[in-house]
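Quick start: what a row looks like.
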Amino acid sequence: MTTSPSPNPATPAEATVHTKITVDPQQMVSLLGARDEVLKRIEEALAADVHVRGNEITLAGSPADVAMAERVFAELTDLIGKGGTLTGDSVRRIVAMLAEGTAERPADILTLNIISRRGRTIRPKTLGQKKYVDSIDAHTIVFGIGPAGTGKTYLAMAKAVAALQAKQVNRIILTRPAVEAGERLGFLPGTLYEKIDPYLRPLYDALHDMLDPDSIPRLMAAGTIEVAPLAYMRGRSLNDAFIILDEAQNTTAEQMKMFLTRLGFGSKIVVTGDVTQVDLPGGATSGLRVVQEILEGVQDIHFARLTSADVVRHRLVGEIVDAYARWDEAQQPTAPVALPGSRTAHNRAARRR
């Protein structure tokens, strides 16, 4: 890609400037997208005017807007050149990362492969996710804290599978608290494993995305992969393992301490959770909230905090997260309101009974 500014007479700083970009014809096909769908997303995301003719793109607007557009097109063409897939979503993410002023190139972030299987590659999609993945490489214990849809557990599991395949660890241990392990599980039919299966199902689903489904039963039978409720961790010392605690906001302070002290030699721990979605009964304090005060600043322990900007589900999920955060902030001066049918409303009704 080459750029060539058009000459303009001396004018005020905010006068319109024009820049022409020449793109490789093969890259231009990807840059436009099917039925110009990608180009439409680019035009929506940029403040500068974009005009395409052949393999030339002309940008017009204020100096700052044109400069931003040039950077965006440079990242987009670099992403294509590195074999990345260009979509409307990747356009939005590149613009957002450049707007943050990060020193890291968005094209490098979006082409960082963690694992690949059957043509599908798992990689970070935001700057926050890239920092989270890097922190897992750099620290023994990492806490991934953030709202739903930010890839906390999915990326941690991808790193665990990559570590197992590279023989950096001998096994993967995945665990979650079964927050309703009292009366409700007792009324469910079946064995204990059948009762806790709904709580562990999301972990199994992620495993099927990353490994050959036929190999998973064999790996689990051999103990190479273990999926178990948090209560099963007590009294164990876990060596040479990649250990993931999911939904950690539903641990008590005592359970969190018990889990972290299972760390053995040659192991790595990733703890994931969302402190805004605590389902503990009776108003119990979340262990994930408390541990941030206790362990912040301890060497080789890192807290990676993801935000709505790191949500990689539907665009509306990030907006929903932000809307709820604003609503929660507005409710702070008064008593929290329980939404009808929510767990909080159910727990309060149970206490009244």
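That is the whole record. Residues 63-81 form the longest helix (19 residues). The first strand starts at residue 2 and ends at 5.
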